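Predict both folds.
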Amino acid sequence: MFIVNVEGAVYKDGQWLMITRSLKEEHAGGTLSLPGGKVDREGHTLDILERTVKRELYEEVGVEVKENVTYVYSSSFVTDDDRPVINMVFLCEYDKGTPYSKSPDEVESVQWMTLSEIMNHPKAPPWTKQSVQRAEEAQPKLT
């Protein structure tokens, strides 16, 4: 059975909301990441992925996003302890809240970063770069 994980790509004023994962995290501790987390079992429900990404953003970094979130893409990987994971990234529009590490066991630090800063960051793994690049491409273009 897969673990289902969601990540929120939150964009504001030319920058992306990024976290540095705590070294206590089981997977990819100490790396740059989009905020997010695992989907909880809820039984029969609607919009579970969208609600999970909103919940995780608030629980991890204290940020609220607007109602509509947009699916960007999905990927899969296997953790170091051989658990299969499906990961989904959603583009989210910032609404309110000053981001901070609400959960130090999960989030070491929180920062707003440009695409260039993320792509050149020494602790940004390839999958994080891919997620932000795809979210950047999924943004509505202003004309």
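Second protein follows, with its predicted structure tokens after the sequence.
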Amino acid sequence: MSILSKSAIAKGDGTFIIDNVTVADPLKDEVLVAIKAAGLCHTDHDSLHWGKPIVMGHEGAGIVKAIGRNVRTVKVGDAVILNWATPCGECFQCKNGNEHICENNSPVVAGGNGYTPGHAHLEGTNWNGKPILRSFNIGTLSEYTLVKESAVVKNPFQNMPFPAASIVSCGVMTGFGSAVNTAQVKENSSAVVLGTGGVGLNVIQGIKVSKASKIIAIDINQNRLDMAIEFGATHTILADKNDKGLLKAALIVKQMTDGRGADYAFECTAIPALGAAPLAMVRNAGTAVQVSGIEQEILIDMALFEWDKIYINPLYGKCNPQTDFPKIIAHYRNKEIKLDEMITRTYPLENLQQAFDDMLSGKNAKGVIVFE
């Protein structure tokens, strides 16, 4: 029996509306989730321009309301976290441990525009009598969502506040995983984080958990730097927005790191002009990580690669959701990382525009939509 679900719907022309969609019962490998909280990031705002109607949202947490007959990993009543990088388990990348870049299901790798139409039956969610796609195949800015079993992870901490749980599935995982899974930051090392928004703060938390001895945060916003200290940075640099390529900031980093440069540097600004900046921050044989997903063409002075430097462009912190989400939750329960403190403000779905405005103006480390 289908259910009405109040949802945020991107119209594809840069605007959105709040309206009801109809969500069907789950098929044999699907799960119906009542969303309790949905985190927001810039990708959600970008989805307004994807050229077709779509149920918005790709971070979320909620409660299982119904399951298909073949579902085994969750049951009705379980608190779950939604995962947008759903693996098929059969393709070349999945078999090689790269579930986050699944060749069949990834809405980034396979579909390239936030959804893979063949991943779930389109008739599962309807708007105005017609099937509608869900952002990243999950569409979490909705009271209910119908997803594949592979898109849900049972929360090992069933009493965890839903707003904190909701942000694990993208911003936290991307930042934390870039430090822990991708760069594999070593104990007693030094690291630089360029940009201390939501993702940058989680890179800092991953570096801290990895027991680095020096964590240098760089930003043009002093308030962001103050927050970086709260989340684990040991040093800060207030950058000049006219500092091309942050080369002047790089000189300060070298002064802080015995003249060599840091062992690791993470770019979290999403500013194309800063795509090469982490290379200027790291020592010879250091590792630069481009976390923010810059896709524009940029020019790089190859001298920045001298010598033996590594530059990595990971997706989603190399996430394996069934193992990585529980690890993050364990760090949260042990008070080794902060999640509740990262949420600047919560909003009802009706105030989504205000939430977007606050995000775009830099007011929030993280904004979260909450459902009754």
